[in-house]
Please model this.
Amino acid sequence: MKNLVVLVSFLFVYSFGYSQILSDVDYVAPFHDGLAAVKKSNQWAFINEDGEKVIDFRNDIVMTSNKDYSDAYPLFNDDRCLIRRLVKGVYYYGYINSLGEEIIKPQYLNATKFKNGHAIIIKFAKNVMGNNGVLGKQVVTYKLEEYVIDISGSLIKYLDNARNSLPSKIKNNTPPSFYSKFITARLIAVKTKNNKWNIYKF
Model:
């Protein structure tokens, strides 16, 4: 009887002291902003520092690189994480918050992770040049434009490096490259058409 009590006590302590939270995950990322990404198959979820799953597994979360680690994985910065959505063969990028809520809907052709409350995005600018009377269609041109945005998605700074592009040239697995980069929290370097750099403060 005494041995049975000891065994039951041991099982009770073991089951409550070493409870398993998640099983069979393929990857566990480091914590950022109090959350860590975990991967299962082709989906990602997020856990908090108590191991609780706060964002369920989903397939729209975007991996980003981190200079301190060789692997790319999803992460939160400034309570924002990148997501993407496929629309007519093109991926558009946006952001969720730490509750999994879509804060900035996917609308950008490319986007960086947030840092110091700002991110860089690339979007199409459509310019109507006129009308073709024979075909009954508008004559339009498209340019890729880069902006600095804040965590609400408001455009903060236009980056003077627009370049011509066609929607049909954008591939779903190769978003357009950035011509701009943050060099401090409020300074940004912008690559010009002659491969020089301009520095702006915003």
